[in-house]
């Protein structure tokens, strides 16, 4: 149940319910009452919760699937040479080249293929450059992505790869005050938000997992 998972998250954070209410700008007693009565809360508070607590996995909060914290959603490939029988073979694309064509479907852009246990047929992997999505995605990690019908709906608060004619971005998509744009947010607080006009977006891919690429010095 949603409200029970929210209560579990608050307890995991080691804060009081009142402190949590203050953090999301909710009135005193709103969350505690919902927890006592095991009732829901208005959908507008979901945006506030995900915004204030980027480490919280919104999919887990809403459905109970996956891990509570996005940090725990990272998937590691310990050995590519010893894959499980049911692992899916996922192509690894050169994202810089792929950004130019938008849709990731050209075999000439495939750098490698790896077997990943949590992937599904049709998923692809790309390397993420930079630390704007730290601590969930580190520089050099592989993001396993799945094409997403963003023109139909957007699950705000999730991590996506957004492809335009000019570039590709790995960001959390947030709702913008302007209905003609989407707000892009990094998990690393050192990076500022920015907006992209919806008309410029060619494709959106949902990040379904992360493969930690260990670095040995």
Automatic annotation (TrEMBL):
Residues 91-198 form the Peptidase S24/S26A/S26B/S26C domain. Keywords: DNA-binding, Transcription, Transcription regulation. InterPro entries: LexA-like, LexA/Signal_pep-like_sf, Peptidase_S24_S26A/B/C. It comes from the Bacteria. Coiled coil: none annotated. Transmembrane segments: none annotated. This is S24 family peptidase.
């Amino acid at each position: 149940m949603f409200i029970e998972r929210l209560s579990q998250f608050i307890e995991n954070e080691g804060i009081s319910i009142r402190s949590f209410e203050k953090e999301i700008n909710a009135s005193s007693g709103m969350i505690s009452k919902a927890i006592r009565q095991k009732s829901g809360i208005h959908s507008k508070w979901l945006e506030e919760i995900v915004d204030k607590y980027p480490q919280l996995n919104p999919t887990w909060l809403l459905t109970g699937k996956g891990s509570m914290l996005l940090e725990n959603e990272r998937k590691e490939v310990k050995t590519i040479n010893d894959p499980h029988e049911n692992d899916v073979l996922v192509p690894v694309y050169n994202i810089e080249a792929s950004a130019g064509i938008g849709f990731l479907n050209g075999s000439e852009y495939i750098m490698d293929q790896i077997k990943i246990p949590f992937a599904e047929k049709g998923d692809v992997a790309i390397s993420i450059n930079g630390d704007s999505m730290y601590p969930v995605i580190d520089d050099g990690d592989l993001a396993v992505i799945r094409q997403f019908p963003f023109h139909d709906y957007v699950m705000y608060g999730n991590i996506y790869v957004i492809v335009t004619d000019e570039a590709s971005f790995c960001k959390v998509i947030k709702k913008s005050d302007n209905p003609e744009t989407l707000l892009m947010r990094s998990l690393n607080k050192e990076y500022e938000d920015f907006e992209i006009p919806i008309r410029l977006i060619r494709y959106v891919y949902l990040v379904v997992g992360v493969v930690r690429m260990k670095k040995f010095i």
